[in-house]
């Protein structure tokens, strides 16, 4: 999160730019962002170098509808925080330039109007996926409803992708195929508390192999039994996936069962893959028998499904609709 204790210079007016802007934080506030490029050009280089390196850049209450190409060229912000930018519709593909894209480590997009229009959305994701050494990409408020096919279409080292606002539900409704395809090193995809109703086939497929753990959070959405296309969670290419479909306070209330033709192939693909229901109950009828009857001649899948709770009498666990018991913790 932002480090407000650092020395801070407000650079709304190019006339205010002095050597003090060697400060670690630059904050641009107000309606004068038409001068943003001029403001950046006035920030002096450090130690006679051609590039300028600043730890934090904040842009607040801007009237801009887009960030233009090469805006960040020759100025290296390690952290970019766009907050309360209600007119910001998109980022141009080359907003971060050829060099600066290698230096941004974290970018936070909070209360923007980033558009779901396919052309504008594609520009935004091209800009963001160009950030080769990104650690955290966080969207808190936006107008994006669908994560497009190959949203991350360039190889990036991003570790955390987060479309989550703890204060209100997000607008995401659908995840298309291969949305994170070239985010090779991503360890956390947080899609909690949105309105997701559909997940396309191979939505979480990756082009390159990697054996690390990947956590996917999908609790608090509008997922139901038929929300998932075939192979929705397949193609993770060596990753050990923990798929969180529930959270005690934020279940997918319409998700009543785990269909064999969707989830068995995900568990079979890697015996370290886990589905965690996190206390959200399912109807454990004959549609769930596949958990105990392994059609692939392997031990059953029961212990790859954590915190499974049934609210009907079942052979999976001995309970009834008034008493919930965990199968596995």
Fold and architecture overview:
By secondary structure, this protein is mainly β. The chain has 2 domains: 144 residues; 185 residues, Alpha-Beta Horseshoe (Leucine-rich repeat, LRR (right-handed beta-alpha superhelix)), CATH 3.80.10. The protein contains 3 helices and 19 strands. α2 links the parallel β7 and β8. It is elongated and about 70 Å long. The two termini are 32 Å apart. InterPro entries: LRR_5, LRR_dom_sf. It holds the Pfam family LRR_5. It comes from Euroglyphus maynei (Mayne's house dust mite).
Key attributes of the depicted protein:
329 residues, mainly beta, Leucine-rich repeat, LRR (right-handed beta-alpha superhelix), twelve-stranded parallel β-sheet, three-stranded parallel β-sheet, 3 helices, elongated, disordered C terminus
Task: Itemize the secondary structure elements and their pairings.
Blueprint: E1 8-10, E2 25-29, H1 36-42, E3 52-60, E4 66-67, E5 75-85, E6 90-91, E7 106-112, H2 118-129, E8 136-139, E9 146-147, E10 160-163, E11 174-175, E12 188-190, E13 198-199, E14 213-217, E15 240-244, H3 260-269, E16 274-276, E17 281-282, E18 305-306, E19 309-310
Parallel strand pairs: 1-2, 2-3, 3-5, 4-6, 5-7, 7-8, 8-10, 9-11, 10-12, 11-13, 12-14, 14-15, 15-16, 16-18, 17-19
């Amino acid at each position: 999160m932002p480090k407000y204790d650092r020395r801070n210079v407000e650079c709304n007016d190019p006339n205010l730019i002095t050597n003090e802007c060697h400060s670690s934080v630059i904050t641009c506030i107000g309606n004068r962002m038409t001068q943003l490029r001029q403001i950046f050009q006035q920030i002096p280089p450090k130690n006679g170098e051609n590039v300028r390196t600043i730890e934090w850049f904040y842009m607040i209450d801007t009237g801009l509808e887009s960030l233009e190409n090469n805006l960040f060229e020759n100025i290296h912000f390690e952290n970019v925080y766009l907050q309360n930018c209600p007119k910001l519709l998109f980022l141009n593909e080359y907003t971060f330039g050829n060099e600066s894209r290698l230096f941004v480590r974290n970018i936070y997009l909070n209360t923007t109007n980033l558009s779901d229009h396919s052309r504008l959305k594609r520009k935004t994701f091209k800009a963001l996926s160009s950030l080769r050494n990104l650690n955290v990409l966080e969207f808190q408020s936006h107008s994006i409803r669908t994560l497009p096919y190959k949203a991350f279409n360039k190889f990036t080292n991003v570790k955390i992708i987060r479309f989550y606002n703890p204060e209100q539900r997000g607008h995401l409704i659908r995840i298309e195929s291969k949305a994170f395809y070239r985010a090779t090193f991503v360890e956390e995809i947080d899609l909690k508390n949105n309105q997701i109703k559909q997940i396309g086939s191979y939505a979480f497929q990756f082009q390159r192999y990697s054996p690390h753990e990947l956590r996917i959070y999908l609790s608090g959405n509008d997922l139901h039994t038929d929300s998932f296309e075939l192979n929705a969670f397949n193609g993770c290419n060596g990753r050990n996936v923990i798929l969180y479909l529930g959270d005690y306070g934020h279940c997918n209330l319409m998700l009543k069962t785990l269909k064999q033709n969707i989830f068995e192939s995900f568990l079979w693909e890697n015996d370290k893959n886990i589905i965690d229901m996190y206390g959200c109950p399912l109807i454990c009828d004959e549609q769930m028998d596949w958990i105990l009857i392994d059609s692939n001649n392997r031990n059953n899948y029961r212990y790859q499904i954590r915190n499974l709770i049934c609210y009907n009498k079942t052979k999976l666990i001995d309970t009834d609709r008034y008493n919930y018991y965990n199968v596995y913790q």
